[in-house]
Write a structure and sequence with these properties.
mainly alpha; 73 residues; 2 helices; elongated
């Protein structure tokens, strides 16, 4: 397959990009909340949410790279 991606595949890659952007936005949101939180229990919960978003971003990027290598040949 050439480097020019078919329309549906290109759309899927754009969705992946939006999903990664959303994960990064969520990470920023939780970091901001962590800065404002005083309660240790709340900080622990927010930190857990932040770590989940980081993990989600990594998983999305791994899948994106796999698909990209499959369809960029």
């Amino acid at each position: 397959m050439s480097n020019i991606l078919p329309g549906k595949i290109k759309s899927l890659f754009l969705i992946f990009k939006k999903a990664v952007d959303a994960e990064r936005d969520a990470q920023k949101m939780y970091l901001e909340a962590l800065e404002q939180a005083d309660d240790p229990f709340l900080k622990k919960i927010l930190n857990g949410f932040y770590k989940d978003e980081v993990r989600h971003e990594k998983e999305l990027m791994e899948q994106y790279k796999r698909l990209r290598s499959k369809y960029s040949k």
